UniProtKB/TrEMBL annotation:
<dbReference type="InterPro" id="IPR020846">
    <property type="entry name" value="MFS_dom"/>
</dbReference>
<feature type="transmembrane region" description="Helical">
    <location>
        <begin position="81"/>
        <end position="101"/>
    </location>
</feature>
<feature type="transmembrane region" description="Helical">
    <location>
        <begin position="177"/>
        <end position="196"/>
    </location>
</feature>
<feature type="transmembrane region" description="Helical">
    <location>
        <begin position="425"/>
        <end position="444"/>
    </location>
</feature>
<keyword id="KW-0472">Membrane</keyword>
<feature type="transmembrane region" description="Helical">
    <location>
        <begin position="306"/>
        <end position="324"/>
    </location>
</feature>
<feature type="transmembrane region" description="Helical">
    <location>
        <begin position="208"/>
        <end position="230"/>
    </location>
</feature>
<dbReference type="InterPro" id="IPR036259">
    <property type="entry name" value="MFS_trans_sf"/>
</dbReference>
<dbReference type="Pfam" id="PF11700">
    <property type="entry name" value="ATG22"/>
</dbReference>
<feature type="transmembrane region" description="Helical">
    <location>
        <begin position="138"/>
        <end position="165"/>
    </location>
</feature>
<feature type="transmembrane region" description="Helical">
    <location>
        <begin position="336"/>
        <end position="354"/>
    </location>
</feature>
<keyword id="KW-1133">Transmembrane helix</keyword>
<keyword id="KW-0812">Transmembrane</keyword>
<feature type="transmembrane region" description="Helical">
    <location>
        <begin position="360"/>
        <end position="384"/>
    </location>
</feature>
<feature type="transmembrane region" description="Helical">
    <location>
        <begin position="396"/>
        <end position="419"/>
    </location>
</feature>
<dbReference type="GO" id="GO:0022857">
    <property type="term" value="F:transmembrane transporter activity"/>
</dbReference>
<dbReference type="InterPro" id="IPR050495">
    <property type="entry name" value="ATG22/LtaA_families"/>
</dbReference>
Length: 463
């Protein structure tokens, strides 16, 4: 049963205004263009195409290439390159986001750090316009930079939720920001869908159209990042993390990071939630990043059909995030997320059974994915914000972001390994069920009220 406490949460501060909350939410709008157009729809199949052109130059484009290319001296099946690239990006992200989290809590101007990280990532995304022929090595490098910067910037961004929203408002604020992200990413995807579908009328080859779309996603990310950076410019860093000045910025952050690892055992509910999130979010992120490859190769859909699919997911997910926010207000975030994870399990099992070429069945699965995707992710962020010690949000969100969208490692690794072993994407997608099952079982063990008390935070009315 969802419990209600008579305690009154701490009164909102001058930072917890509607203007700050609106400005904060625009970063979801900004980076979602890269996540949808590039990370979800285009870069996986396009990077696979570049590698396949190198490894299997005579093979038709609608068939999977099982020949290998050499990635850092390691033979990798061309069809697995995109999955392994995301895995490699996550390995780098684990180090980078943890350092950024420790530094952000010590930064006097966290929104400036947010802007720098976002703009470096967006430059890498715009540079993908240069990818052509067999230049998959450059593609791997640019994906690494963009994904690592996306994860690092989101550490700073997510941690600011605690600064701009009171405990009882966070589910609402987080859900609305996620909805904004899905709408923003969806609007750009509409434009890019038109470019891909009408490329001949525009005097473009299909490859040139794809490259132009990749550039637009990076440009969108860069331009709209200006809104949160300017709107939250007056926010200052916390002084809640005392580290000797003699240690320096990097040394102090490393010392703080060491202390955080040591302190995690003092927050067992927070740690359990992180483990649960590691599993079910890796499943979500792998479905998102691998859906276009699965749809194009295993089910035989064209690029335009895949863009229609993701477009449907985007707008349904915007509505789903708002619906899940309302459900959380009534039933609590934890129970609502558990329901979403159970739905993910059934949907992925259904996707395995979709017949080749059955586009309407595929769209039905996509609509169901959209309904649960936004809500589970938005509520996970707001629920976790209740479980982190105040003043140390960025360093704790660094652990969270290591498992966040576009940086899942176990899921993409399993997906790539299963394909390389079987030569088929169907068993690869089915293997992801284990992530949802394990994640749901771990989440069911989290005592949210106890975790909030352990972190020393005010108790919201409903959890």
């Amino acid at each position: 049963m969802t419990s209600t406490l008579p305690d009154t949460p701490a009164a909102p501060t001058s930072e917890m205004t509607r203007a700050h909350q609106r400005a904060w939410g625009w970063y979801d709008w900004a980076n979602s263009a890269y996540v949808t157009t590039t990370g979800t729809v285009l870069i996986g199949p396009y990077l696979t195409q570049l590698a396949s052109a190198d490894a299997c130059p005579e093979l038709p484009s609608d068939q999977a290439c099982t020949e290998t290319v050499s990635l850092l001296g390691i033979p990798v099946a061309a069809g697995s390159l995109a999955s392994y690239t995301v895995t490699l990006a996550t390995i780098f992200s684990v180090v980078v986001v943890l350092l950024v989290g420790a530094m952000a809590d010590r930064s006097p101007r966290p929104t400036r750090l947010l802007g720098v990280l976002a703009w470096v990532g967006s430059l890498a995304a715009m540079a993908m316009v240069l990818l052509a022929g067999t230049s998959w090595q450059l593609g791997v490098l640019l994906v690494l930079v963009a994904n690592v910067c996306l994860g690092a910037s989101t550490v700073v961004y997510d941690a600011l939720l605690v600064r701009i929203a009171a405990p009882d408002d966070r589910d609402r604020v987080s859900s609305r920001a996620w909805a904004m992200g899905y709408v923003g990413g969806g609007l750009l995807l509409v434009a890019n869908l038109a470019v891909v579908q009408l490329h001949e009328s525009l005097g473009l080859t299909l490859e040139s159209a794809v490259r132009l779309c990749l550039f637009s996603a990076g440009l969108w990310w860069a331009l709209f990042t200006l809104i949160p950076v300017v709107g939250l410019r007056r926010l200052r860093g916390t002084t809640a993390v005392p580290v000797a000045r003699s240690a320096g910025a990097l040394g102090g952050s490393l010392r703080q990071l060491r202390d955080t690892f040591s302190d995690l055992r003092c927050y067992p509910q927070t740690l359990t939630f992180l483990l649960a999130y590691l599993f079910f979010n890796d499943g979500i992120q792998t479905v998102i990043s691998s859906a276009s490859i699965y749809g194009s190769v295993a089910l035989g859909f064209e690029t335009g059909q895949l863009m229609v699919t993701i477009l449907l997911v985007q707008f349904v997910a915007a509505a789903g995030a708002l619906v899940f926010g309302r459900l959380a207000a009534r039933f609590g975030a934890r129970r609502t997320i558990l329901g979403g994870v159970a739905a993910w399990t059934l949907i992925v099992a259904g996707a395995y059974l979709v017949p080749r070429g059955a586009f309407l069945t595929w769209l039905f699965c996509a609509a169901l994915i959209g309904l649960v995707m936004g809500g589970t992710q938005a509520l996970s962020r707001s629920l976790y914000s209740q479980l982190v010690p105040r003043g140390r949000e960025s360093e704790f969100f660094a652990f969270y972001q290591a498992m966040e969208r576009g940086t899942s490692w176990f899921g993409t690794l399993v997906f790539g390994l299963v394909f390389q072993t079987t030569g088929s994407y169907r068993p690869a997608i089915l293997a992801l069920l284990v992530f949802f099952v394990v994640g749901g079982l771990l989440l069911a063990r989290v005592d949210v009220r106890r975790g909030i008390a352990d972190a020393g935070n005010p108790q919201p009315a409903v959890v």
